[in-house]
Amino acid sequence: MYYVYPCVLTPEERGGFYVSFPDVPGALTGGKDRSEALTLAEDALTAALAGYVQEHWDIPIPSAIVDGQELVAVSPIVAAKLALYTAMRRQGITKTALAKRLGLSESAVRKLVDPDHRSHISSVEAALRAVGRSLVVGDRAASALA
Prior knowledge:
By secondary structure, the chain is of the alpha+beta class. It folds into 2 domains: 70 residues, Double Stranded RNA Binding Domain (2-Layer Sandwich); 55 residues. Helix content is 44%, strand content 14%. It has 5 helices and 4 strands. A 4-stranded antiparallel beta sheet has the order 3-2-1-4, covered by helices on one side. β1 and β2 form a beta hairpin. The longest helix has 22 residues. The radius of gyration is 16 Å and the shape is elongated. 25% of the residues are buried. The mean pLDDT is 95.
């Protein structure tokens, strides 16, 4: 899955833009202009999805973009962590079970799925392989406004 979500930028009466994500209701922010709003949108999206992990909720599947929306992606390391978290949930793999597969402590695995914790991408990639997944990295044109 690609962790790229459509957002709505709504102009505010006093200037600036309010940003919301239809697929991630808790991801809200704003900025003084479109560029700042989109930059802050990545932080808001990451924070909201980290909350989903902390609450043990399923990560929402991004909907298709419609006219008037912008796309916002989480960072590659956060995307990898969300992919690992999602794979573990779908397969019913506990942190303890994954720790045994990887020869790590349960607390080390907890950090691998925590979007707020710094991890090496190679460690998350190894964990993904241990649950039968692989990490695929792509690129896209950067928004001229962001």
